[in-house]
């Protein structure tokens, strides 16, 4: 135990004093903020400042649509009306779009009464923001138009078609809570993101550190006094502590920032972030178990390799669970309790990320969290057993990377 | 004098080859012991079993008069052939860390590290990072790390490889001092010339088996002195003397191989009559020759 702690302490001090630690401690939050900033700006600016033409044989409808579009201040769109229009003019509009004089045009065909057809033509496909604005404007205008046609006074039409935004309130323990679903969503989303790369980063870090000790032949010296298992344990504890230190630094920095005046202005509205105590506790638990899982895996793999390049060939083992988890984001967030969401949050390599994505929507039943943590702990124990055996033999083997049959043979050595 | 290492017929086989077969040896305190053999003979495998890095398939290892336990490793200092240091660590931190791992108090480890660095003339490097040091310096630090906890058994695998002559001598002298202080020292090498000067006892291994073992003097006395080094001036016809089996004449210097049981004194008498002799030395066979003869015989058998 004394040896393990000495090794852990050495590993911890070396890494915390190292350049890489300082750089990542500063750079990762900066990147994170930059990423969120870019995403916010991009979503605010998507479909903004477009130059559109509304073309219809029905001038009144076309004007209503335009008024609707222009009234949306966020869109800052320039909207011209081309009405009444003849079918032959469509070609001219197409040419204008093609020559980039226009971003696009909305063709409203009202020839069949009560079955109006709207087509938006532009160079870009998949401009969801503009599409949804047009959708809402056209429908709003059509309803108004139909109401007027049925003899409702136009001043009442406005009142009748008044839009309503849906506010979301989450029910926790049978009580309505203040935090909007967006703020909890962002918090959990950010946490799952943070968890995914800290777990992998520190897991790979252990692998790299094993390789370095192997290539510098320190093992030869160390193994004459220390047991291989103590060295492995010391390394896992030491680097894990480095990870927790870095997370703690970020947490303190984030707390200081959140209490500052700058944060109040920046984090208002959609980007309000709410973090609860259970989330923090779960974050730490999932970090520790996730880190233990990946670091044990990479420690074992690193012992079979001779160079960092060889180790990098195993990177997909860490990358695939992450892709899988993030590939399922939309599904998990919208169906947090479906069988698939529950299953993937029980699957140890994906559990840290997917459980936090589920947390983003609603707090899963306690037994599921306990089960997923239990399964992770179990797989860590199994992996530790395998890895420590591979490690013990592998660190003294030089030459080419070990093949699978060789590794299986190592497992049987006593 | 007490027995420090006792190996009783230890064997170790890896997948395709037998690394060590039925090796027995004994090392006493105050003895410099040489474990010799060509590359791949099983030297490192034997040492690894001696200190519990690997376990023998059969046979027993006794250290300090008891069956092997990890506890006894606190009394052993091992310098492996392939050796490393933590590159980013400062020399002093590294030495203290190694000392602590071997059970020393950090303060004691620091003091001893300082004394050793002074003795090996690297005191001005102690605050540098290891990666900034030359290879020779790093080797000295490894040497110190091995000795910091004052081990009773010192095991060094190829300790002098890569050292310049000045530093090699410095380390050799240190080892001799340690031997005089009663430590048991085992070193392995494939360079026989080093062993001749330093070792009291040797074990020659080849193909995982001991082919020759015993005290240095005793082993040498088993072999005849039948090689002559000669410096002369004048007539060289004495080189045709019947006692000579083979010779090389470098003009004024000759290396002569005598026939078995030939009388060297007869040869000297004849040489003196024909030429001026500056030097006539009847040399004992070098360890290298003994090794080649022994291994050669085995191969023939």
From TrEMBL, chain A:
Pfam entry (one): ABC2_membrane_3
Spell out the GO cellular component terms annotated for this protein, sorted alphabetically and separated by semicolons: plasma membrane
- Span-the-membrane segments of this chain are 20-42, 186-206, 247-268, 280-302, 314-333, 366-386
Cellular location(s): Cell membrane
Q: InterPro entries from the entry?
A: ABC-2_transporter_component (IPR051449), ABC2_TM (IPR013525)
- Main subcellular location: membrane
Instruction: Cite the entry's keywords alphabetically.
Output: Cell membrane, Membrane, Transmembrane, Transmembrane helix
Task: Provide the ABC-2 type transporter transmembrane domain boundaries.
Answer: 19-388
Query: GO molecular function terms here?
Result: ABC-type transporter activity
What topology does the record note for this protein and the membrane? Multi-pass membrane protein
Give the protein's recorded name. ABC-2 type transport system permease protein
TrEMBL record, chain B:
The record places domain ABC transporter at 5-232
- Gene3D superfamilies, from UniProt? P-loop containing nucleotide triphosphate hydrolases (3.40.50.300)
Tell me the Pfam families matching this sequence. Answer: ABC_tran, DrrA1-3_C
Keywords from UniProt, A to Z, are: ATP-binding, Nucleotide-binding, Transport
List, alphabetically, the PROSITE patterns matched: ABC_TRANSPORTER_1, ABC_TRANSPORTER_2
Task: Write one Gene Ontology MF term.
Answer: ATP binding
The name this protein carries in UniProt is: ABC-2 type transport system ATP-binding protein
């Amino acid at each position: 135990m004394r040896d393990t702690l000495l090794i852990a302490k050495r590993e911890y001090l070396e890494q915390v004093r190292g350049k890489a630690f300082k750089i990542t401690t500063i750079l990762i939050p900066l990147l994170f903020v930059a990423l969120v900033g870019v995403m916010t700006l991009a979503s605010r600016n998507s479909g903004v400042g477009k130059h559109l033409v509304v073309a219809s044989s029905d001038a009144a409808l076309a004007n209503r649509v335009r008024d609707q579009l222009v009234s949306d201040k966020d869109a800052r769109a320039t909207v011209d009306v081309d009405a009444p229009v003849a079918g032959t003019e469509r070609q001219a509009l197409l040419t204008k779009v093609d020559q980039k004089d226009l971003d696009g045009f909305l063709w409203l065909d009202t020839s069949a009464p009560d079955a109006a057809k709207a087509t938006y033509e532009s160079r870009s496909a998949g401009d969801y923001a503009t599409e949804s604005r047009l959708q809402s404007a056209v429908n709003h205008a059509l309803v108004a138009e139909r109401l007027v046609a049925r003899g409702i006074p136009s001043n009442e039409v406005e009142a009748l078609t008044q839009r309503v935004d849906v506010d979301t309130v989450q029910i926790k323990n049978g009580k309505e809570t203040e935090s909007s679903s967006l703020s909890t969503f962002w918090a959990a989303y950010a946490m799952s993101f943070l968890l995914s790369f800290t777990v992998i980063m520190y897991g790979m870090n252990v692998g790299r550190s094993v390789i370095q000790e192997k290539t510098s032949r320190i093992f030869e010296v160390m193994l004459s006094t220390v047991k291989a298992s103590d060295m492995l344990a010391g390394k896992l504890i030491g680097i894990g502590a480095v990870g927790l230190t870095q997370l703690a630094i970020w947490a303190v920095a984030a707390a200081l920032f959140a209490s500052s005046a700058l944060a109040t202005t920046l984090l208002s509205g959609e980007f309000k972030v709410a973090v609860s105590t259970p989330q923090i506790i779960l974050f730490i638990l999932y970090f520790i178990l996730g880190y233990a899982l990946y670091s044990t895996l990479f420690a074992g793999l690193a012992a079979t390799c001779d160079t960092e390049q060889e180790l990098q060939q195993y990177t997909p083992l860490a990358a695939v669970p992450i892709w899988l988890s993030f590939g399922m984001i939309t599904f998990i967030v919208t169906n947090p309790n479906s069988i698939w969401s529950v299953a993937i949050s029980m699957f140890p390599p994906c559990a840290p990320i997917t459980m936090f994505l589920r947390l983003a929507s609603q707090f899963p039943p306690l037994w599921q969290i306990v089960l997923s943590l239990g399964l992770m702990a179990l797989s860590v124990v199994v992996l530790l057993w395998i890895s420590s055996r591979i490690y013990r033999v592998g660190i003294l083997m030089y030459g080419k990377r070990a093949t699978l049959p060789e590794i299986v043979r190592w497992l049987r050595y006593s | 004098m007490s027995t420090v290492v006792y190996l009783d017929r230890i064997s170790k086989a890896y997948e395709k080859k037998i690394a060590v077969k039925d090796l027995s040896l004994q090392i006493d305190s105050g003895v410099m012991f040489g474990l010799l053999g060509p590359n791949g003979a099983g030297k490192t495998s034997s040492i690894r079993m001696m200190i519990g890095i690997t376990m023998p398939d059969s046979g027993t290892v006794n250290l300090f008069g008891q069956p092997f336990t990890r506890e006894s490793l606190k009394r052993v200092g091992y310098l492996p052939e392939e050796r490393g240091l933590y590159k980013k660590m400062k020399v002093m931190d590294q030495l203290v860390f190694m000392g602590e791992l071997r059970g020393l108090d950090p303060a004691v480890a620091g003091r001893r590290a300082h004394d050793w660095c002074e003795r090996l003339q690297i005191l001005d490097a102690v605050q540098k990072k290891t990666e900034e040091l030359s290879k020779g310096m790093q080797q000295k630090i490894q040497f110190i790390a091995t000795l910091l906890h004052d081990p009773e058994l010192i095991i060094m695998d190829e300790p002098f490889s890569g050292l310049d002559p000045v530093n090699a001598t410095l380390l050799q002298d240190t080892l001799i001092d340690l031997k005089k202080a009663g430590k048991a020292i085992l070193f392995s090498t494939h360079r026989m010339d080093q062993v001749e000067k330093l070792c009291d006892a040797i074990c020659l291994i080849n193909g995982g088996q001991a082919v020759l073992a015993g005290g240095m003097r005793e082993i040498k006395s088993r072999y005849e002195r039948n090689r002559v080094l000669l410096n002369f001036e004048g007539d060289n016809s004495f080189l045709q003397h019947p006692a000579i089996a083979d010779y090389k004449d470098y003009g004024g210097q000759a290396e002569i191989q005598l026939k078995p049981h030939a009388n060297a004194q007869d040869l000297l008498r004849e040489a003196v009559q024909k030429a001026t002799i500056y030097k006539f030395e009847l040399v004992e066979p070098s360890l290298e020759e003994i090794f080649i003869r022994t291994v050669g015989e085995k191969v023939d058998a």
